[in-house]
Amino acid sequence: MPTLKTSTTHFSKIALTSGDPTGIGFEVICKALSNIGPQNKTLFFLYRDHLQTIRQPRFFKLLDRKFYRLTFSSEQAAFSHVNQLIKNKTVPKNLLIDLSLEDTAAHWILSAAKACLRGDLTSMATGPLSKTLIKKSGFKFMGHTGAFRKLCPKANLHMAFIGDKFNVLLATDHIPLKKVPARLSSKTINSALTAARQLKALTGSKKNIGLLGLNPHAGESGLIGTFEKKCCQKLSNDISGPLVPDAAFLKKNWDKYSVYVCLYHDQGLIPFKLVHGQDSGVHVTLGLPFVRTSVDHGTAFDIYNKNLANPASMIDAIRLNLKLTRG
Question: In 3D, which of 48, 9, 10, 13 has the Cα closest to residue 119?
């Protein structure tokens, strides 16, 4: 175990939720933390299943090489202990709060988000969580974004993805494809463009935002659908579009736009994941009153506990979270 060192400074408190216990979330978080190491003025709160101590002991060894790990069986016990350490000015600089929990990973998302809203935590970086587990846990929301919409019903939330090659923001996300056209009103498009401007500012880009069309050839002037003529007219000078969807993501276009605004889930996620894979890419939820970043990949049940998972996306997610929470 590393030497215990103390600090007396103000702390950011970042929740790291590891997602499905039989997915790669816990593995990539452990590998990412081992890569990043302890951070000044930052405390990581690792949410994980209580059985992982038995099932995945090798990844705890990675953590314990860099961190002084304290394990708790509940959030409140951890928060109380940490607050006392801060009050006494005896917080180890390499402290990691390890939450060994018996409820499901779906519950952790809601608990950590509520803690962020209360101020007990500063932000969240999340591992992959399957919609099947959410359903089995008794919830009806779809994915992390659905959980955040449940907690913040008045917020305009958008899924966005930041990559090395290009960035994507979704106007609609987890809805059936047949419902997309009805959901794409001028109000929906304007909300997405507002969020895209926030993402553009976050990345520091000066380039235009690219708005994709819905229909083949972006409607071909109304010959293949009229959506583009109804909802994509009178665009401001910082918006380019509607772009032809099958050509928008050609490599020659990557440097033209700060953000691609895509109208439905797979229109944005297929090209993003095809290009970035697990080597880079961070999922960001725009519109929340706290920072939430995430990996851009799924649970990968097929390689669970085989020590094959690539932690690159989680490393990027934690580093971006650190950057944003530090202002």
Answer: 13
Q: Which amino acid is at 34?
A: S
Q: State yes or no: pLDDT of 4 exceeds 70.
A: no
User: Tens digit of pLDDT for each residue in 115-136?
Assistant: 999 999 999 999 999 999 999 9
Least confident of 30-39, 117-126, 142-151: 142-151
Cβ 224 vs Cβ 217: under 8 Å: yes
